């Protein structure tokens, strides 16, 4: 979009915001374009935004992010609230790595070597569809975010001898290693090539789904070696969706909010190489001018799904609202919503229980 079109879309958005006042809440994920973040009421990571959505009294919650996030907001929304997404095709590579059919298949196959209903508790990263969350909720399991994975996994192991963590194998492995779960107690489930020999699963305490985020997976150990060579004294901070070999070499690991806090609270002059989505890294660099902040990746990786939402898409969705036209409505069927809500509620319970 040219500057004029951007300005025009921003003006239209501002007009609707003024007209609708508190009836409208615009949420933007940290990986969104700058012009979207600039017009949003709040920006945040998955956990912060789902909390904002749950606490809001707004009639319309417009979610600038990817589809599973808007679905989560719709699951948490109160009666009378409607969630809208400016780009319905904004998916997520990681969320697409698991669906309910594959999950049912895994559940059935694993039942050959363990009593799944009694022994295996599923934990789903929030980067999953509402249907997958519902499956997890129906089985007594919980959702987690990258900032609560540790607490939710601990909660799950207090209730079950085995946990099925999905779909991010690396978040699962990094959390397992922080909790001291040894490699021999972990087994990887590949939904595209279900194993014939299930003996490893029979012994496993933690079963991981073979999924990964195609942004965070791009950071490699050689990137850490390169930035350490090129910038002596550099500190490396990465997201836990990164490969364990990268996490092992980093100085800090944590969720998006943790990364932002860590960089912000570091002394002036600190040099940071950041292993996460580039829009967040660029914003961090711009907001911490007393430090040197740059991507761990070369080239820095962008999330193509997050990049889909443009100011014109947001303006188009907002334009219908004053006349009650709800473009980009996100609907979650009642039966799916109940199970998914249970899984999300158990996440808050696990976070509260950990103090
Ligand atoms: S960065 Fe990765 S996990 Fe996040 S929305 Fe994009 S593909 Fe999904």
Summarize the structure.
The protein has 355 residues and is α/β, with parallel strands linked by helices.
Find the CATH superfamily of the largest domain.
NadA-like
Ligand kinds: iron/sulfur cluster
CATH class of the largest domain: Alpha Beta
Intertermini distance: 47 Å
Q: Quick one: how many beta strands? A: 13
What structural category arises from helix and sheet content? alpha/beta
- Silhouette: globular
Query: Which range best describes the helical content: under 10%, 10-25%, 25-40%, 40-55%, 55-70% or over 70%?
Result: 40-55%
Which range does the strand content fall in?
A: 15-25%
Ranges where pLDDT stays below 50 over 5 or more residues in a row are: none
Stated plainly, the CATH topology of the largest domain is called: Rossmann fold
The CATH architecture of the largest domain comes to 3-Layer(aba) Sandwich
- Largest sheet: spatial strand order: 6-5-7-9-8
Tell me the number of helical segments per DSSP (H or I, 4 or more residues long).
17
Order of helices and strands: HEHEHEHEHHEHEHEHEHEHEHEHEHEHHH
Specify Rg, calculated over alpha carbons: 21 Å
How many separate domains?
3
Major sheet characteristics:
5 strands, parallel
| Mean pLDDT over the residues | 95
Overview of the molecule:
This protein has 355 residues and is an alpha/beta fold. The chain folds into three domains: 3-90 and 306-324, NadA-like (Rossmann fold, 3-Layer(aba) Sandwich), CATH 3.40.50; 95-213 and 337-353, NadA-like (Rossmann fold); 216-302, Rossmann fold (3-Layer(aba) Sandwich), CATH 3.40.50. 46% of the residues lie in helices and 15% in strands. It contains 17 helices and 13 strands. The strands form three sheets. A five-stranded parallel beta sheet has the order 6-5-7-9-8, sandwiched between helices. It has a four-stranded parallel beta sheet with strand order 2-1-3-4, with helices on both faces. Helix 7 packs across helix 17 (334-353) and helix 8 (149-159) packs across helix 17. It is globular. The relative contact order is 0.16.
């Amino acid at each position: 979009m040219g500057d004029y079109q951007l300005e025009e879309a921003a003006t239209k958005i501002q007009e609707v915001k003024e007209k609708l006042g508190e009836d409208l809440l615009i949420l933007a994920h940290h990986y969104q374009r700058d012009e979207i973040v600039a017009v949003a009421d709040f920006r945040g990571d998955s956990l912060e935004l789902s909390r904002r959505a749950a606490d809001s009294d707004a009639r319309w919650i417009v979610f600038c992010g990817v589809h599973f996030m808007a679905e989560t907001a719709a699951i948490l929304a109160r009666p009378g609230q409607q969630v809208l997404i400016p780009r319905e095709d904004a998916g997520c590579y990681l969320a697409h790595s698991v669906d309910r059919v594959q999950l049912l298949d895994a559940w059935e196959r694993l039942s050959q070597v363990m009593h799944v209903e009694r022994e295996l508790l599923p934990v789903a990263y929030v980067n999953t569809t509402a249907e997958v969350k519902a499956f997890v909720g129906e089985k007594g399991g919980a959702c987690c975010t990258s900032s609560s994975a540790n607490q939710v996994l601990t909660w799950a192991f207090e209730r079950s001898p085995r946990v099925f963590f999905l779909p991010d194998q690396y978040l699962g492995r990094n959390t397992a290693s922080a909790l001291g779960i040894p490699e021999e107690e972990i087994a990887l489930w590949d939904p595209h090539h279900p194993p014939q020999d299930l003996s490893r699963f029979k012994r496993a305490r933690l079963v991981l789904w073979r999924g990964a985020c195609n942004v965070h997976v791009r950071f490699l150990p050689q990137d850490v070696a390169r930035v350490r060579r090129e910038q002596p004294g550099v500190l490396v901070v990465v997201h836990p969706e990164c490969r364990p070999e990268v996490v092992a070499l980093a100085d800090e690991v944590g969720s998006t909010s943790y990364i932002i806090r860590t960089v912000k609270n570091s002394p002036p002059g600190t040099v940071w190489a950041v292993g996460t989505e580039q829009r967040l890294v660029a914003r961090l660099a711009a907001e911490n001018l007393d430090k040197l902040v740059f991507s761990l990746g070369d080239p820095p990786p962008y999330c193509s799904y997050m990049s889909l939402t443009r100011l014109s898409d947001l303006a188009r969705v907002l334009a219908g609202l004053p006349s009650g036209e709800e473009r980009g409505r996100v609907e979650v069927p009642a039966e799916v919503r109940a199970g998914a809500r249970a899984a999300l509620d158990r996440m808050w319970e696990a976070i509260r229980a950990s103090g």
